[in-house]
Design brief:
- By secondary structure, this protein is of the alpha/beta class.
- The chain is about 35% helix and about 15% strand.
- It has helices at about 45-55, 65-80, 90-105, 115-120, 125-130, 145-150, 180-195, 205-210, 255-260, 270-280, 285-300, 325-330, 355-370; strands spanning about 85-90, 110-115, 135, 165-170, 195-200, 225-230, 240-245, 310, 320, 340, 345-350.
- The strands form 2 sheets. Strands 1-7-6-5-4-2-3 form a 7-stranded mixed β-sheet, sandwiched between helices. A 4-stranded antiparallel β-sheet has the order 8-9-11-10.
- It is globular and about 60 Å long.
- The two termini are about 30 Å apart.
């Protein structure tokens, strides 16, 4: 097996920490251990559990004709400034594949960053399930620009080349950076000028809004995004995402594709109820603001430790750092986290809605102890 140099959420457990017994006793030392590996590791927010319990009463019409899904459309319209079609789905990969597939003919291609989740962490799902060609571009910070898009946005009418018809960006990016509304708008105008569409993978969209201090619509509907994959799982939901169609003319056959792609929930009320709980009040923003604040606390805590370098801007809930040789592996005996680039010693630490100041401080203290052991 070739060496792995970028281990993200889906890395093999042995690459990140000793294997744990899922059936372990709750009183075991590792039970409930705080992790800095991924915001996917966090549990479900208590307010979301309560919303699920409220939805779990009586019978409701299946396949989206329930009151929670109707309410989701109302809530999403409030955030985006107008009524938009919303298609709840089970997971982020499903949302991305479904949204992109609905935007493209069979000969279409997507321009994206090399680090994009659709390229690095979805196991070929866009290619295998949707038959989409990905045209990737190297970026210094995970963000595309109009100039970078043009490296792949060419060859229209050439029957020998997959036709670049969609630009896909991630907010926040896989490198923890945020697109500003102006940057998204520039990409949308550039893509539309080429007759292309803009898709936004919003796996951590709430973290971006918390960082930017703007409404969701400012860097989505108002900025010219055509289709949005709205993420909730990384922000405290049990498992709920949605494809949000900001420009209906950008998609074709999405209801049918959702069923074909096995993303149509029969008991959709339980997905919609989670999204409503997140978006109806301020839970979405409150949770993201807290996760971002914990990442800043972590960054500040490790700054100045001998041999530790924070190597990327901390703009949301991710901290990327380089550690001295051997330190990461010893520290992982106490806290789980992933290597980002084994060759350079770069690691990634993620904070979540339930990360506490005490968790961060304990992690920093443990890192300091491991550094002292060198």
């Amino acid at each position: 097996m070739p060496p792995v140099t970028a281990l993200h959420e889906n890395a093999h457990p042995s690459a990140a920490a000793p294997a744990e017994d899922p059936a372990r006793d709750d009183d075991a030392p590792t039970a409930g251990r705080v992790s800095f590996a991924s915001d996917n590791y966090a549990g479900v927010h208590p307010e979301v559990i309560q919303a699920l319990a409220r939805a779990n009463v009586g019978h409701e019409i299946a396949y989206g004709e329930d009151r929670w899904t109707a309410r989701l459309h109302e809530v999403m319209a409030q955030h985006l400034g107008r009524e938009v079609p919303v298609f709840p789905v089970f997971n982020g990969t499903g949302a991305n594949v479904l949204g992109l597939q609905a935007m493209l003919p069979p000969w279409g291609a997507v321009v994206c960053a090399e680090t994009a989740h659709i390229n690095t962490d979805e196991n070929g799902a866009p290619e295998r399930v949707a038959g989409i060609k990905l045209l990737t571009v190297p970026t210094p910070d995970g963000k595309l620009t109009p100039q970078l898009v043009d490296r792949q946005a060419w060859g229209w009418g050439d029957e020998h080349r997959a036709q670049p018809l969609v630009v896909s960006i991630t907010q926040t990016t896989e490198l923890g950076t945020c697109y500003t509304p102006a940057e998204v708008r520039a990409l949308a105008e550039h893509a539309h000028g080429h007759g292309m569409r803009l898709h936004l993978d919003g796996a951590r969209i709430a973290n971006a809004a918390a960082t930017l201090g703007v409404p969701l619509r400012a860097f989505t509907a108002d900025a010219g995004v055509d289709v949005l994959s709205f993420g909730g799982t990384k922000n405290g939901l049990m498992g709920a995402e949605a494809v949000v169609v900001l420009d209906p003319s950008a998609v074709t056959g999405l209801p049918f594709l959702r069923k074909m792609n096995m993303q149509l929930a029969s008991k959709m009320r339980f997905i919609s109820a989670q999204l409503v709980a997140l978006l109806e009040g301020d839970l979405w923003l409150r949770s993201a603001q807290h996760a971002n604040a914990m990442a800043r606390r972590l960054r500040d805590g490790v700054a100045g430790l001998p041999g530790v370098s924070v190597v990327r801007p901390v703009e949301a809930n991710a901290v990327f750092a380089v550690l001295p040789d051997g330190v990461a592996d010893r520290l992982r005996a106490r806290f789980r986290f992933y290597d980002w680039d084994v060759a350079t010693g770069e690691v990634r630490w993620m904070c979540a809605f339930d990360t506490t100041e005490a968790d961060v401080d304990a992690f920093v203290d443990a890192l300091r102890e491991e550094l002292d052991r060198r």
